[in-house]
Structures are given as structure tokens and as C-alpha cells.
Amino acid sequence: GAVVSQHPSWVICKSGTSVKIECRSLDFQATTMFWYRQFPKQSLMLMATSNEGSKATYEQGVEKDKFLINHASLTLSTLTVTSAHPEDSSFYICSALLGLGTQYFGPGTRLLVL
Amino acid sequence: QQQVKQSPQSLIVQKGGISIINCAYENTAFDYFPWYQQFPGKGPALLIAIRPDVSEKKEGRFTISFNKSAKQFSLHIMDSQPGDSATYFCAASMETSGSRLTFGEGTQLTVNP
């Protein structure tokens, strides 16, 4: 149980285009999901908290107009990287909150912006 | 203080040995302390977690030791295997902040055959 999926697993796009990443909790409902970014050999950096039916809460320094988050259902949150640039290339990982404190992570999406 | 300090940065252990990774925190409001295992190119997988009302939790070969007064917790991997070679992250969160995780810097564990 407690499976979280992400789609796509990897994506290559041209600079200036937008990319949407989906995060789904497959066997449980999650009112709260989280989006992280991870650079090579580094820890996970929380970007935003996604709450079903309400606006996402962004961490300090994360541009909310660049990283659009939608949590329209209890099993799906999406992250859209708008007008992507090479510096947005990274490994994006989502997680879903189950119960008190336990986060289950997706497999990640590797984004490469050319 | 929201930081969680993790050490060592890297660790090499022989097969069958004990791997020990340590974490320290400052914020006494943290009430949940999980450990995650991450393989290259994959998302982190929850290994084991503990709350401050207990001092130790064991699941299979993995044990968390928790010292509330010292604000430290550690992961012990008994009988380490080459398949345990991965990056391990400690983390901490508190329910009052929406269970947002603060991660340690990570430990690259290598278990030699």
C-alpha cells in the first residue's frame, strides 16, 4: 500500500516551453501533497505544499508564477513548470501525506530543458 | 531553528557490519522523525520512523535510537548488505506546521562485498 506515482518519469523540452508533471496517490486519498526539487548529490528541497481544493503554499524563494501547482482531487496534484529554462533542469519529486506526518514519495521526474 | 544536521556525509562498511548514521536537530517542536532510503534516479522510500515518546524502534535490520534530551537520533543497519548501498536521509517534521519535512544532508552508504 501507500503507492505514489509520477508521470512522466523523464521529460526533455525546449527553453521557453511549459511542462506539466502529475503526481497521483494510487491507493489512498491525500488532502496534502508536497513538491520537492533535488539537484545531483544534494538533499531534497521542499518547493511547495499542495492542499486539495485550495491554493498551494510556496516555500520562500520559490516563484509561484513559474511553478504552478493544482490539487484538484484527493488523488492528483500537478506541477507545471512555465517558460522553462535550462536552470530549471532538475529532479522533481512529489510526496503524499498519509495520516500523521508520514509522507510517501513518488519515483521522481527528471526534467531536462535544452 | 529548522535545520537537521546529518553525519557522516559518506560511509563505507563491510558486508555483515553495522552501519550507523546520526542526526541532530534544534527545534524541540519536531514530533516525527523518519528515515528515507534513496537509490540513484529514484524517489526516497520510507524505511522507519519514530516519535519522541519512545527511545528506540526496530524493524528488521533497521533500528532508530532516539535521545530526546540530546536532540539526536540515529539509524543503525545491522548485518549490512551490498543491496543496502544507497543514500540515506533523516528528516523531521511537526504536525503544527502541516507535517512539512526538514531533511538532513544525506549519507552515501557503500557496503562492500
Question: Can you walk through the features of this model?
Answer:
The complex is a heterodimer of chains A (114) and B (113). Chain A is mostly beta strands. Chain A has no helices and eleven strands. Chain A has strands at 4-7, 10-13, 19-25, 32-38, 44-51, 57-58, 67-73, 76-81, 90-98, 102-105, 109-113. The mean pLDDT of chain A is 94. Chain B is built from no helices and eleven strands. Chain B is 0% helix and 52% strand. The model of chain B has no long low-confidence stretch (mean pLDDT 95). Chain B is mostly beta strands and 113 residues long. In chain B, the strands form two sheets. In chain B, strands 2, 4, 5, 9, 10 and 11 form a six-stranded mixed beta sheet that branches. The chains are: A mainly beta (114), B mainly beta (113). At the A-B interface, β5, β9 and β10 of A face β5 of B.
